[in-house]
Design goal:
five-stranded mixed β-sheet
Length: 303
């Protein structure tokens, strides 16, 4: 059984795209199809359904996939044991992330990552919409949303602390809220479908239905609206730490933390075989952000 054929089959199973899988391994679409045909012929079963519109695994393909992953993992471990493995991860890594976090924090990290791993290419897709990793052919997603798909694995990269903030001009005009109940009397900028703010108090949790003047589906738009003095807003500290440093935004209600438990996660399809390029990328990001992300360290210096 040809190891290259197994590698290709695993990438096709992950991307559901023969041309893309072949490209990642340096093969043309025609050669990739030939390799898959040879693998199917050697096994005597059909592994992949091919149509002009989509690719999917057959029942035999789904059964064979974990065994192929196990074989390839064993081969890589054997090579590494004698020092003959590929010490420089390479290939195309397809990543998706939120637009705001991606532009602000992943692009600088990726610049440093590529200096360390020059044989890896990064294909970035930044969108605030939740995407299907397998259907989209992505190796990894950087998300702050809760993990719901049991077929995915998540590794925490950093805390995502969120606070209530406003511009000095807004607070000068409408006053500073001193208690969560005061929020009812303020204008608020909200993420779409998140009009209720829940705070932790000594008396328990308090849920406030906010007076929403502006709704958006983008974190940077929320931040910019609050910078313009359009209302109170809940923002992640990674999104506003520079504005807090410059005094363009001010945190309010800091004695009443929000009842929000979120974090930044690296999410990838469940598999017993994590490609070296993905493993080193996630390890790099974990080290880059560290136990205390740099934006939190800079905010701590203000206190």
């Amino acid at each position: 059984m040809n190891i290259e054929h197994l590698q290709l089959f695993i990438r096709v199973a992950n991307t559901l795209n023969i041309s893309q899988a072949g490209q990642e391994l340096g093969l043309s679409a025609a050669v990739a199809s030939t390799h898959l045909n040879k693998l199917e012929k050697s096994l005597g079963v059909k592994l992949i359904y091919r149509t002009t519109r989509q690719i999917s695994l057959t029942e035999e393909g789904r059964i064979f996939l974990p065994h192929a992953e196990s074989v390839l993992s064993a081969v890589e471990a054997a090579r590494a044991a004698v020092g003959s493995g590929n010490t420089n991860p390479k290939g195309i890594l397809r990543m998706t992330a939120s637009a705001s976090f991606g532009r602000q924090h992943l692009v600088p990290a990726i610049g440093s990552f590529l200096k360390k791993y020059p044989d890896i290419q990064i294909d970035m897709s930044f969108s605030d919409a939740m995407v299907d990793l397998v259907e989209g052919g992505f190796d990894v997603a950087i998300r702050s949303a809760p993990l719901k798909d049991s077929n995915l694995i998540a590794r925490k990269l950093a805390n995502d602390r969120r606070i209530v903030c406003a511009s000095p001009s807004y607070l000068e005009q409408f006053g500073v809220p001193m208690h969560p109940n005061d929020v009812k009397h303020h204008q608020c900028v909200n993420f779409r479908d998140r009009d209720i703010w829940t705070f932790k108090t000594a008396e328990g949790k308090i849920a406030i239905k906010t007076n929403t003047k502006i709704r958006t589906d983008n974190g940077e738009s929320m931040r910019d609206a609050s910078l313009e003095g359009l209302g109170l807003a809940i923002s992640s500290t990674w999104n506003i730490y520079k504005h807090l440093q410059r005094g363009e935004l001010v945190q309010v209600l800091d004695e009443y933390p929000l009842d929000i438990d979120v974090a930044i996660w690296a999410v990838y399809p469940s598999s017993r075989l994590v490609p070296p390029k993905l493993r080193v990328f996630i390890d790099f990001l974990s080290t880059w952000f560290g136990d205390t992300p740099y934006w939190e360290s800079e905010l701590s210096a203000l206190v």
